[in-house]
Amino acid sequence: MTTASAQAAIPPWDDASITAIRRDMLRFARMHLRDSGAAEDMVQEALMAAMTSAKRFAGRSAFKTWMFAILRHKIVDHIRASSREICGSDLAGSSEMDAGLEEFDVLFKRGGHWNPEDRPSTWSDPEASFEQDAFWTVFDICMNNLPEHIARVYTMRELLELETAEICAALGITSNNCFVILHRARLGLRVCLESRWFQGEAR
């Protein structure tokens, strides 16, 4: 994409599509920060940064993806700064985290083995699916179906790319609990994607 065509892909800042992107950005920020005021601030900072640096948008990714990348950096910086000041009373307790894990336990027999009917199938061509916009729409639905705390830990690790120690410090959980949550998140996403996408129901 040329510079001119990349710039032409940027909608007016008062366009309805920008309003929709801002709404999605705010939902994403609130999930991670658990503070509506801080989430609003991060989204506003990201939007201002996008406006001032719009001329550098090269079109190598979708405009919405580019804006979310800016927001991601803002959120990571905020989490890293606030985790050094976080109070114990503000941390999510392990019992609250554990409550979100219970619904996945039905997938397994005693001892941690898959129930036969819930055993994951082999995905035929995942790389091709990742290139389809419809797949990511289904993926977003599956993410929203995860318990909030599980989704938060997963996106902090996989989307924000925070280290495990940083996630544990920000949420007040142990590294072992973090690994368990990430494992259950991946299982939950797999089960959802198999039923909604890879078995053909969402195509």
Automatic annotation (TrEMBL):
Named from the GO MF annotations, one term is: sigma factor activity
Q: Where is the RNA polymerase sigma factor 70 region 4 type domain?
A: 142-186
Instruction: Give the family per the record.
Output: Belongs to the sigma-70 factor family. ECF subfamily.
Protein name as catalogued = RNA polymerase sigma factor
Q: Name one GO biological process term.
A: DNA-templated transcription initiation
Q: What keywords does the record list, in alphabetical order?
A: DNA-binding, Sigma factor, Transcription, Transcription regulation
Stored SUPFAM superfamilies: Sigma2 domain of RNA polymerase sigma factors, Sigma3 and sigma4 domains of RNA polymerase sigma factors
Whose protein is this, by species? Thauera phenylacetica B4P
Is Cell wall biogenesis/degradation a UniProt keyword of this protein? no
Record-linked InterPro entries: RNA_pol_sigma-24-rel, RNA_pol_sigma-70-like, RNA_pol_sigma-70_dom, RNA_pol_sigma70_r2, RNA_pol_sigma70_r4_t2, RNA_pol_sigma_r2, RNA_pol_sigma_r3/r4-like, WH-like_DNA-bd_sf
Quote the PANTHER family the UniProt record gives: RNA POLYMERASE ECF-TYPE SIGMA FACTO, RNA POLYMERASE SIGMA FACTOR HI_1459-RELATED
Give start and end of each RNA polymerase sigma-70 region domain: 20-84
